[in-house]
Amino acid sequence: MSTYQHIAQRASQVPVRLLCQVLGVAPAAYYAWQRRQQVPPVEPAWQVAVREAFAYHSQRYGACRLRVEMQAEGHAVGRWRIRRVLKPHGLRAQQPRSFVPRTPDSDPAARAAPNRLLAPTAPNRVWVGDITYLPKQGGGWLYLAVWLDRCWRKVVGFGAAGAARRTCAIPCPRT
Predict the structure, then answer these.
(1) What is the pTM assigned to this prediction?
(2) What residue ranges do the domains of the chain occupy?
């Protein structure tokens, strides 16, 4: 039990000034403690808005991006204040994982074929192709296969699929 709690218990039997004098406490300090006990601290609206925005953006926004969002909502607050709010609650932005393309038929023992694509002499003799990964808006990847004529340097055909399979690249050539 603290000194102030002891004074609060005995206040109905003994005057507060006398209790404070006996216990060596300033009466103003006791009354300040009493006011703090009655009024719970009110959290500013911007702090609530910061935590809500952090949760809304799937814990991906850090202090810099949250600052921009708070200023758009009309709260004049800097990124260091936002950091001081996030830290005690254990909120920390999740860093995105680095992108490493994964192909189903990757064979580390396979040897690269020698380059036999010399300067083409006529169109439709040598075609080259490539597959690229395009991010989809809802998550995941779209695989785009493109065939080029080496002589014309123009697209001969293309194809897209939701998975990197051989079927994505085989039916591509369209003349």
Answers:
(1) 0.41
(2) 3-38, 45-86, 97-105+120-175
